Amino acid sequence: MKSHAHASLDSLLARFLQCGTWAACVLIGAGLVLDAHAAGLGMRALTAGVALFIMLPVLRLVLMLAMFARQRNYLYVAIAVTVLALIAAGCVIGMRLGPLAG
């Protein structure tokens, strides 16, 4: 059985992901509507919505890190920091070696 802290973390994460998904959907929908009228603004809204979808798992990890730190669960803090560091390293390496690299 889950403790109260785990249940509240699960509930917070579920609400966060649900709100983030809705926000990304609204941005993409607005971008599609605006694209017919104002191409520049519509494209920016579409891009922001897709970026939010991509960033949601990383933002979830940051939220989990904050919650684990608040609970003083240092093992999970270390795990979350390690995963964030790996994601950051992957982004840096991708920018250095990928098609966008100079």
From TrEMBL:
UniProt superkingdom: Bacteria
Keywords noted in UniProt: Membrane, Transmembrane, Transmembrane helix
Transmembrane segments: 12-34, 46-68, 75-97
Entries under InterPro entries matching the protein: DUF1634
Name by which UniProt lists this protein: DUF1634 domain-containing protein
Organism: Caballeronia ptereochthonis
Organism placement in taxonomy: Bacteria, Pseudomonadati, Pseudomonadota, Betaproteobacteria, Burkholderiales
